[in-house]
Amino acid sequence: MDNNSLHNDEFTRMHHPENDEQYAGLQVNQGVEQPPMVNPYLRRRKRPTLSVNDYVEGIRAGNTSILGQAVTLVESLKPEHQVVAQEVIEKCLPFTGNSKRIGITGVPGAGKSTSIDAFGMHVINHGAKLAVLAIDPSSERSKGSILGDKTRMEKLAVQKNAFIRPSPSAGSLGGVARKTRETIMLCEAAGYDTIFVETVGVGQSETAVHSMVDYFLLIQLAGTGDELQGIKRGIMEMADGIVINKADGDNKERAELAAAQFRNALHLYPMPPSGMAPEVMTYSGYYEINIDKVWAMIDKYFEAVHKSGYFEEKRREQEKYWMFETINEHLRSNFYNNPEIERLLEIKQEMILHNKQSSFVAASDVLNYYYNNIVKPQQ
Ligand code: GDP
């Protein structure tokens, strides 16, 4: 005990110059270690490990707890989890594809979560089983996504026919998008016939979402004066429907005006491959005005593309796209995450900066090293 207090005295003198004699009257003691937040004596019950068949059967039976665990596996970065996840997906494959996949985008504050709550309740009240997923490119930085968060969709959150899952948070956009796409498949196998994929309309993520949905809905706001300002051409071209939210109260007229401006602007765009010119509508997610009209517009689209065959054609294109995306992502991560390559790239960057090697020679050196020393020995 005494030893301990001696030790403490020494410690405080060393670490706290305030304890020097010149600061008489001031005393700093060693802090007290805080008890752990979690009772260490409480043994956590470990979940039993499920087999691939347990997962598949649970998913097929619509067990949301097992579905959630399977999605966690899909999102896991651990290779052993990935192996199981891929087997589960493979076995679920025959039961996938039979849903309406709808992408929903809009800048922060456009009213995505309020609208998803309203649209979601609408489809559930018409007998749908709905899964709400998300792709949030910023979630890697913020370590956790807010998109697709249950707390933002109060009404849906308590519905037994709604499954809400936030964006996977780790990895590159390509990786995050692949996980969301795999989650779509698991949800379809679990019987969800309507899938919403939410994303923030600010960057690259729209392209990723566009490549996994049948219909892409762009939520816009009125009242900024120049309505079309700031909307990237690419996003306008991807949209199958544009809806102006918050068309309520004083804002109604401005929303109508914005809608007219969008309709005019759309005339300048070529007809999309679906053969369906995007429609523009006004609605209010919060006051639930025109929700049924927006949904009728989306239903009309699905009916038309089913009839024309474009629905199937687009799905097939997307399948091809995802095969190539998966290969690209695998190759990229295999290459760039290799520690030897990382080191070599650092050296080569220095050489390029100091004009000791051209970028082409440096690139071919690194690639040669990769093929001769990393790829070959694995073969
Ligand atoms: P998100 O960031 O796109 O998900 O937007 P939110 O759904 O969180 O909505 C942002 C803000 O706009 C919130 O304060 C909502 O209450 C409000 N809001 C959303 N929809 C409407 C609407 O239809 N009318 C009005 N007046 N406000 C709305």
Summed up:
This protein has 379 residues and is an alpha/beta fold.
Task: Describe this entry's structure for a reader.
This protein is of the alpha/beta class and 379 residues long. It has 15 helices and 7 strands. The protein has helices spanning 2-15, 52-60, 64-75, 79-92, 112-125, 139-142, 154-157, 173-189, 205-210, 233-238, 252-266, 291-308, 310-336, 339-353, 359-378, and strands at residues 100-106, 130-135, 162-164, 194-200, 215-221, 241-245, 279-282. Helix 10 links the parallel strand 5 and strand 6 (241-245). Helix 3 crosses helix 4 and helix 3 (64-75) runs antiparallel to helix 8. The longest helix is centred in the last third of the chain and has 27 residues, at 310-336. It is globular. The model is unreliable at 1-6 and 140-144 (pLDDT under 50).
Q: Descriptors for this entry?
A:
10% strand; 7-stranded parallel β-sheet; disordered N terminus; alpha/beta; 379 residues; 15 helices; single chain; globular; binds guanosine-5'-diphosphate
Taken from the alpha-carbon principal axes, the silhouette is globular
Give me the side-by-side strand order of the main sheet.
Answer: 3-2-4-1-5-6-7
Q: What is the average per-residue confidence, as pLDDT, rounded to a whole number?
A: 85
Q: What's the total number of strands?
A: 7
What oligomeric state do these chains adopt? Answer: single chain
Helix percent band: 40-55%
Structural class: alpha/beta
What's the order of the H and E elements? HHHHEHEHHEHEHEHEHEHHHH
- Tally of alpha and pi helices: 15
Q: What ions, cofactors and ligands are bound?
A: guanosine-5'-diphosphate
β-strand amount = 5-15%
